[in-house]
Write a structure and sequence with these properties.
The chain is about 35% helix and about 15% strand. By secondary structure, the chain is an alpha/beta fold. Helix 7 (about 150-160) links the parallel strand 6 and strand 7. It is globular. The protein starts with a strand and ends with a strand.
Length: about 190
């Protein structure tokens, strides 16, 4: 299973730059052939963990809270495509359980500016990003960075925080300039 986090869009699609990217990449994934993977849109609310998102009306909506939580195991991947830092932290136990069961955790890293310059953001944003980076430190296997500079910044933050898992977090570039459908490959590197 490839479980793709669409939490923020499912709650409210404000049409921000990141949300446009999330929608575009989600559409590319839906059209792609992914041998051996079931593509599943997932979303979490503040109170409820990750469940299958509601795609019934052609859009993306929050899941029915009566649905079972998504359980991932060895060979499955959680892709943190949406920037849902506060939800991810609230459901860190679910993410930790997936990792213990052998699932891989991949996160798209759009920016880490709220970690570098918290004084430029509302206190809640800096607080959410502080918690989000702890999830990256503890559980992320692959950081899909949108640029080389974001990759370097992430590595600097992890080094400054003396992250023990820093050497095992694979950095891959997912350049987001131009037409998303023209992106044919992701290159990986370790820091």
């Amino acid at each position: 299973m490839l479980a793709v986090d669409l939490s923020t869009i499912a709650q409210h699609d404000a049409g921000t730059g990141i949300q446009r990217v999330v929608r575009s990449l989600w559409e590319q994934l839906r059209q792609a052939t992914l041998p051996g993977f079931e593509l599943v849109a997932v979303a979490a609310t503040v109170k409820g963990g990750y469940r299958r998102a509601d795609l019934s009306d052609g859009g993306i909506a929050l899941p029915d809270p009566k649905q079972p939580l998504v359980e991932l195991q060895s060979g499955d991947i959680f892709l943190g495509l949406d920037l849902a830092a506060h939800r991810l932290w609230r459901h860190r136990r679910q993410v930790a359980r997936w990792q213990r069961h052998g699932a891989s955790i991949a996160m798209v890293i759009y920016d880490i500016l709220p970690l570098r310059r918290p004084d430029w953001f509302p206190p809640s944003t800096a607080r959410h990003f502080g918690r989000w980076i702890r999830i990256i430190e503890r559980h992320c296997d692959t950081a899909l960075c949108i640029s080389q500079s974001v990759s370097v910044d992430l590595d600097d933050v992890l080094r400054t925080r003396r992250s023990k898992r820093r050497p095992v977090i694979r950095h891959a570039l997912l350049p987001l300039s131009g037409d998303c459908s023209a992106t044919s490959s992701v290159t990986g590197q370790r820091h």
